[in-house]
Design a protein that fits this description.
- By secondary structure, the chain is an all-alpha fold.
- It contains three helices and no strands.
């Protein structure tokens, strides 16, 4: 997990615009790493949260009232 081979890196760079910054490349590698981790966790049966569950968590962290149905 989180390893990339030369061909994958080459393919990623080929899909980049002709003029890009290292920060943009780093960000794309970071996103790929996070997606790989998420895919691995799903395959391992980790519980995922729905968007509504995440919104409720944010409200809870902010101290807002959560309406239960």
């Amino acid at each position: 997990m989180s390893n990339i081979n030369k061909k994958e890196l080459h393919d990623l760079i080929e899909r980049m615009p002709d003029d890009f910054t290292l920060e943009v490349l780093q960000y794309r590698l970071f996103v790929l790493q996070k997606l790989e981790k998420a895919e691995y966790q799903l395959k391992q049966g980790y519980k995922t949260s729905t968007l509504d569950e995440m919104r409720d968590l944010v409200k809870e962290w902010r101290g807002e009232n959560i309406q239960q149905i």
